[in-house]
From TrEMBL:
Name of the protein in its database record: PNK3P-domain-containing protein
SUPFAM superfamilies assigned: HAD-like, P-loop containing nucleoside triphosphate hydrolases
GO biological process, one term: DNA repair
GO molecular function, a single term: polynucleotide 3'-phosphatase activity
Record Pfam families: AAA_33, PNK3P
Entry-linked NCBIfam families: DNA-3'-Pase (TIGR01664), HAD-SF-IIIA (TIGR01662)
Low complexity composition bias: residue spans: 1-17
Organism (species): Tilletiopsis washingtonensis
Amino acid sequence: MSASTRATKRSAAAGESSAEDEPIQLVASRAKKLKSAAAKPAAAMPAADAPAGSAKPAPSLRKLAPIFTPRAASGASAEASGSTTSSGSARVVWRAPLRFRGKPGCLLGVCGAPFAAAVEKTLALPENEREQTIKVAAFDLDGTLVVPKQGTWPSPSDPYDYKPVFANVYKRVREEYESGSVIVIVSNQKQTTPYDISKPAKKVLTWQQKIAHIAQAIGCPMLVLAALADDRFRKPAPGMWDATMQELEVAGGKRAWVKVGGDGSSFYVGDAAGRPARGRIAKDHNDTDRKWADNLGLPFFTPEQWFQGGDAEDYKLKGWRLSWAKDDAEPSKPAIAPASSPEILVFVGPPASGKTSYYRNHFEPAGYEWINQDTLGKRDKCIAKAREALQKGKSVVIGERRSCARLCIPSDAPSCLSTDNTNRDKATRAFYVKLAAERGVPIRCAWFELSSEQVVHNSYYRAHHDLGHEPERNLIPGIAIGAYFSALQVPTQDEGFAEPPAVVKFRFQGDAAAREAYSKWWQ
């Protein structure tokens, strides 16, 4: 089917995409009569930064597909001319979504050849002078480049529901490209349902159409990335930057060529900057943009700073970071060590507090075993398993709830059985104290003490980072973390323990690369 036939059919659709529209590729094409543009100068592009609705569509564009035809009061005035930039960018091509652990996690769109000019310029240099020569100018989308025309949230069905945040937005981004930078847009676009490649949601297609308009308005090559889920691609996690570097390598460049830090550094502009309320201006909805830049070592600017020359503003980052920890040094000996005779050992601590690693490092080698309620499921099964072990001469402890603590009872083997349980309250721990008395063995307690912020950090890190030999982990629901801390009763010796509970501080274990990853912002 010819381009003109497609345009005619789409025009008949009265603003809706036809069945022939490809969800993975949206094209902001030129009018057919501009085919010979390569042989003569392109029509002048009207100011892309004019107020919404100020541009009028050129007559030659009346047969373009409705989704690419300028409408009255649209924010994409640059589309009116149908011309392209000198670089010839006129398409936004959506490749297959990037995946994380087998699931689609990030949309990847390419407008023109975003790395071509920078790579060509760098390749012209002597090989020993190529490092730190490419400048990446990265931008958030919503609240940074564009905002909805009406309301707080973009329309899920109107690809024209946007306007530039400031009048000079499109022009400034285009000028940054013309100065030699690579333009990259990175946006969190979390979907309420998993992304379906065969049948993308209407709001995803709408968003892709909107990006086509915005890219045409800016008028230069660019890379567009959109994180669809709560995974490694979602800011502040570094997935979208890693994807950017991979695209650079595909274009013939190298990660080492990108300049990070110092004069002329790559940079990032975003509105989620952790700023408090300022007069009539509400506080920032998040701080993830600033954290993303911090993770990558990029200079960070708010839209007010970069587009308007505004001053830096106060901010506060929420969450937890390793560099904030007062004492992360590994102690010379563990806070609690295996006993030489049978005992019950109660691990008290929230999920993602390092109990599994502590068990493996210090108690599994000594023959301690446990009953894991996460594996067995129901309490009745745990009781049956414990009863079976008791009949074999082993002592057991049963967890009351599914979570992550360990209770260990060595036998004469010596081996032990333990349960998976946070043991957060006295009532739960009392059962184990009673069991110890019945069995005639001592009972001790190890309390894994860390803040809820660090638990959240640990949860995100292990869910969104490749842990190598470790099994994949899912995010722990915030409600589960909150429930633990709201019901926590700090263990004390007077509950019946043989000695004061040992306090175990979380200490990260891993090589230099793993530690560097753990040190980043993950939420």
